Amino acid sequence: MRVLAASVALLLASALPLIAAEPKGSAAKEDRPLLLVHYMPWYAADPAQKKWGWHWTMNKFQPGHPQNGQLDIASHYHPSIGVYDSGDQHVLEYHAGLMRLSGIDGIIVDWYGRTDYLDYGLLHRNTSAMIEQVQRAGLKFSICYEDQTITKLQDAGRLKPEQRVSHAREEIAWLQQNWFRSPAYVQLDQRPLLLSFGYDGLKDAEWEQLLGGLAEPVLYLSEHHRRPSAAGAFDWPLPKQGLQGLKDFETASEKWPTAMPVAFPRFHDVYAEAGLHPSWGRIDDDQGKTFVKTLSQAIQSHPPAVQIATWNDWGEGTMIEPSTEFGMRDLIAVQRARKKSIEPGFPCAPEDLQLPGRLLKLRRADLTPERQIQLDQAAAFIAARDATAAKEILNRLEKGL
Questions:
Q1: How confident is the model at residue 106 (pLDDT cuts 50, 70, 90)?
Q2: Which domain holds residue 242?
Q3: Quick one: the chain helix, strand, coil %, rounded to 5?
Q4: Is Hydrolase there in the keyword field (predicted)?
Q5: In terms of domains, do 239 and 298 share one?
Q6: CA-based nearest residue to 38, from 191, 240, 197
């Protein structure tokens, strides 16, 4: 046992310094935009949660019963790794590794607060777990606050009308104490970046009251339209408007202090098929051209950050996470855009994107603790974008299966 412990300690010592390290000679332009991807922490899967969560089923689909050789999930598309749970550390490591090797700088997490109501508590725990993986992989993170939760809590009798702003202020204060101070948290104009989604939560006057009462200032962006208290807004796919919506946002944002454009691959929701309500509309994938065009357009507008929508909203079909339908195509497009417009010396190649999936497969193989530590070292090499070193470890371990 002492020999094993010493080996483990040695491997950890050699792996940890690699985490978040940048390869030499790969420095990007100082004024480059950050590439941030919107991340959903809301997937619950059997057996981890002993049930299939709503975002996989939408009360109609049955993930445990494949149809015509495909997973029966609430999506027109299917994850390459199968149905997963958003609390699975190995899956989160896989996601973060893919982001790192594709050239994504960080995530914007859809956050529902900390209240133990509906699945909000589970989403908060999943968000915390993903943030740990993001930091380990050398990525950045930021929060998009789903303030619609305030209205739902009020409707459920959990909040009184006069408590709406104070509740939100407590949530933001928690963020300030716990996440905003992280070196990995996205800062724009020397302030932590905070987004809010939609307009079903706090009203404009309530946001003004909230932000005016914070102990430390934030850089707040609202969705599509700039609220009076916001520094600007972030864009989002509008299926009824298609690509014209991007032009409208660009025109409207010219006079704002800050704006965050959006890039997306498509919009193809499953809501009609799920029997929830009519589809919001569709933006065609156009054989990958939609993503290439929107990403290029967003980068060329020279914003402080670009938001890619999304990493994994399978229900609306906007995901760039690898799927059985598109493979790694959209992540390869991110690599190419980064090399072309942001960082010519970006060191990763399309074949490197296979490494996180190989790592995940080995994690799931239930290897010995000593071999799992070697996988920790491979994960550290992926974080350092050292594909050659990561590949050597994975090759060696795969031979032993």
A1: very high
A2: 32-346
A3: 45, 15, 45
A4: yes
A5: yes
A6: 197
